[in-house]
């Protein structure tokens, strides 16, 4: 009975399926490589165009706010 | 109330709004490097990544009223970026990769030559993972997002995220071992260290 109960509480997510047990050292090595890949891009200089874009969006919004303020007066 | 009492109140409101806009903009600027790294990991191309980041910033700006202050701006932006990628960029990504190769082969990296080679190999392996595995591995393994946040961003259960992360790691270990035939050190050790449960080994 216990065995049956245990079987019934198993997760039935189709993605669960089989799982492999990885050596913790392998996991750690993959983790380090992941961070190296990601941080390499994170630490790269950000193209100016993004800062220019945001400054433009902000300026547009401020002009719109100024215009509606003038209208309401 | 005299008019002079009313004017400052209106000005204070406007200033508060400008302050909110400024804070939101600063938040976006802080997240740009992470958005680029996530976008590059998804699309496999730095050029596509920057187009994707630009679209994401525009959408985020237009929908800033939907962001709940106090929640994770990164998770919110990743959700926008991911949706944009799957609806508009996925196909383009394949075309760019086909014509130019992935960024893994082209991107200049900092550091010594040995780590450069390692990184290039790793990126090639990463690009071979199914998208659904690659995206969660990056979110959970590199961006600092929690399993819960990754689950919310992808719209799936936490158990599914954990399972995908496991599969992604296993697949990467396989790919990296296979890629290092003349490197008898770590490659062979990795392959031997993996214990398969309930499935047949994939041949070389």
Gist of the model:
The complex is a heterodimer of chains A (73) and B (204). Chain A is mostly helical and 73 residues long. Chain A has helices at 2-8, 24-42, 48-72.
Q: Between the first and last Cα atoms of chain B, what is the distance in angstroms?
A: 84 Å
Compressed to H and E, one letter per element, the order of chain A equals HHH
Structural class of chain A: mainly alpha
- Compute the number of helices of chain B: 9
- Integer count of domains of chain A: 1
Average the pLDDT over all residues of chain A and give the rounded result. 76
How far is the first residue's CA from the last residue's CA of chain A? 79 Å
Largest interface: A-B, 42 and 59 residues
What form of chain B results from the Cα inertia axes? Answer: elongated
What is the fourth-level CATH superfamily of the largest domain in chain B?
A: RNA polymerase sigma factor, region 2, helix turn helix motif
Q: Would you report the number of β strands of chain A? A: 0
The outline of chain A comes out as rod-shaped
Q: What is the count of β-strands of chain B?
A: 0
